[in-house]
Amino acid sequence: MNKKEILELRKTFRPEECNISRIATCYVTSEKEKILEKSQAFLSLPEEEAFKYFDILKQALSGTVGKNLYTLKTNSIHPADESTQKLETLRKYHMNDEGMLTDLFDSIIGSYDSSENYLIIVVNGLYDIPGVTSDDQELEDASDEVYSYILTCICPVELDEPGLSIDCTKPAILDKERDWMVKNPVNALLYPAFTDRATDIHHALYFAKKAENSQDDFLKELIGSEMMLSDKEEHEWFLDTLNHAHEEQMPLETAKEIHTKLVEKSLEKENLPSAGMLSKKELLQVIDKELNADQVKDIDEDYDKTVGKENDITIKNLVNPKKMVIQTGTAKVEIDSDYADMVETKRIDGRLYLAVPLTSNDILVDGCAVRTEALSD
Questions:
Q1: pTM of the model
Q2: DSSP one-letter code for 357
Q3: pLDDT tens digits for range 122-170
Q4: Are 288 and 257 in contact (CB under 8 A)?
Q5: Residue 114 and residue 229: Cα distance in Å, rounded?
Q6: 376 half-sphere exposure, CB direction, 13 A CA radius
Q7: Taking the alpha carbons of 285, 286, 292, 298 in that order, is the dihedral positive or negative?
Q8: Residue 87, CA distances (Å) to 30, 245, 324 in order
Q9: How far apart are CA 368 and CA 349, in angstroms?
Q10: How far is Cα 146 from Cα 125, in angstroms, rounded to an integer?
Q11: Phi/psi of residue 290, each to 5°?
Q12: Are 189 and 205 in contact (CB under 8 A)?
């Protein structure tokens, strides 16, 4: 899913656009004990309570694609796989079966790793997808499809901050009684995905407030997803892969070319459902002409083992699309990606220099405008 599709769904989490039919909640302790389980029609909630749920649901579709929001493949194409059946069945019956909800809660509790109390929130929405014109203007009464989805949120439950309160009836200053408060979600799962503004049972959208908290068992249980790497792990894998691909150090020209091609891919995919992500095939296409056949084969095999054959990788974890960073023992130079191909090395009077062509005579040192002898001549 891309940013535009995610924002379209987020806009429905408000009273005037609400398409949520049912909501179910389950309060769980850090010892995996269920304290409360409840299901009801969303429109039966008091107005103030509904507003608070809207805020939580919006947070579940917030963040950056490829950093907090990931489009993951599901095992829906394998009928024998039970991983997506619970969500698919709940979606089919619009969460009206209490036994199925209990089964889902038990699956989540058994697979979700948490050292604190948390609240599971599950909602079913029925979004009557409006038609749009070529300039993205909505058309009234032009719906082609109703998108039915299940959104599952995991929200920590914590004691609020200690403090003092004033009791005006006595009057007195008292120690404030602390309440258990439901916080914004740390993980969420939208099934099925809303791809190309249509139902996509082969993908789900996963939210992780912190990328390193990927909750692999939870994902495998609900959608059969393979393990994910954290942002840091993806970055380290890519660096190690390139370093090991060369018996000696990689030529500067090769490094520049790979950086430039990855930036171009990022721009090409900006408004696509796979925005910010690269498949294994796309990554291999980027490096294919820069490495020899044996090196590409090694990276292909290592990708399957480390990243996962069916998993995509985040472009921003491989390179910074905005700049190329060059480090030496004595300096660190940041080059705008648009000019990365202009950087070169030169040998002058027997010494090797990193050469960065100047695109103007404006030079700043610690923010101060300066001139050099070369420019003044």
A1: 0.71
A2: -
A3: 999 999 998 776 666 666 655 678 999 999 999 999 988 878 888 888 8
A4: no
A5: 19
A6: 4
A7: negative
A8: 24, 42, 43
A9: 30
A10: 10
A11: -95, -15
A12: yes
